[in-house]
Amino acid sequence: MTLAGRRLAVIHTGGTIASRPDPGGPGLTPQQAPAVPGLPGVTVTAHQPFRLPSPHVTPEHMLRLARLIERLAPDADGIVVTHGTDTLEETAFFLHLALATDTPVLLTGSMRHAEEVSWDGPGNLLDAAHVALHPDSRGRGPLVVFGGDLFDARTVTKVHTSAVDAFGGYPGPIGRIDRTGETAHLRFFARPEARPVYAPARLGARVEILYAYAGWQGEGYEGAAARADGLVIAALGTGNLPAELLPLVAASAGAGQPVVIATRTHAGPILPVYGYPGGGATLVAAGAIPASFLNAHKARLLLLLLLSLGHGLEEIRGVFGAGEF
After folding, report:
1. What is the DSSP string of 251-306?
2. Second label for 252, Cα 20 to 30 Å away, from 81, 176, 221, 268?
3. Mean pLDDT of all residues in the chain?
């Protein structure tokens, strides 16, 4: 595929890919964002709505990013977003939920900085550019590209703290890009899917995550429930909790506060199977909402958007139940 005449918008948001060691102190600090290498004939425009390490990125930043992408999309054949890896998967999923455009949007970053001999930033950036400019990428929603693998925003997750191939997620990549010289070879293993859009004008809700563990008796639950409009619990296994949590969840649901049950395991759906107190079946009977296959931090973003749109408890239950994301 020839790239000549195509238009690429690159949005830099910070992260390791745009960091250097600080000569005056410990650690990495943000520096100039990298240019896209090796795209003859492509018109590239650069944008930087903010420059942050990814632990500093909030849903409000994600909403700003979504609005920028919507403005750029009509005049771009593809859009690349560079991002720190710690919360890249959350930004990708937020954009998956909030963007209406069919213009390809690719997110990438790097695990190593520019002064390391094995810096992975330029290769990931070039891969992302090629995928973003390929016609087969249209209509797929935002994708993540890392180390040549392409991931769906709904299932991608960071699986290693320091390895170059840090991203994965069950059931695995949905595509692969390999380059030989100036030629890119792109293959998708899945077809594009229709997806609803959840795009509030502002984020007007608060959602907190609680993490289940052996022996948890509900410590922290009531405080979180009092602060938040909705809760997500990273539960055990297929969606189970200690017995002490059952009345707490029932009280929240009875008051109209959504409580979404995700899993703390690496992958898999929430299945309300067990009927003991705190088992998944009893939690659902008490009003809890299964998160389907979403992990806790992605379930939080979906719940945040639904609440910000003014959805009530039963509407939220319907969205999660139907897997409409």
Report:
1. HHHHTT--EEEEESSSS--------STTSHHHHHHTT-EE-TT--HHHHHHHHHHH
2. 268
3. 94
Q: By three-state DSSP, how is residue 245 classified?
A: helix
Which of 212, 203, 151 has the alpha carbon at shortest distance from 177? 151
The residues that bridge with 304 in the sheet, in sequence order, are none
223 and 311 both lie in a single domain? yes
Whether residue 132 is contained in a domain is answered as: yes
Tens of pLDDT, residue by residue over 196-247, are 999 999 999 999 999 999 999 999 999 999 999 999 999 999 999 999 999 9
Catalytic residues: 16, 85
Same domain for 295 and 246?
Answer: yes
30 pLDDT band (50/70/90 cuts)? low
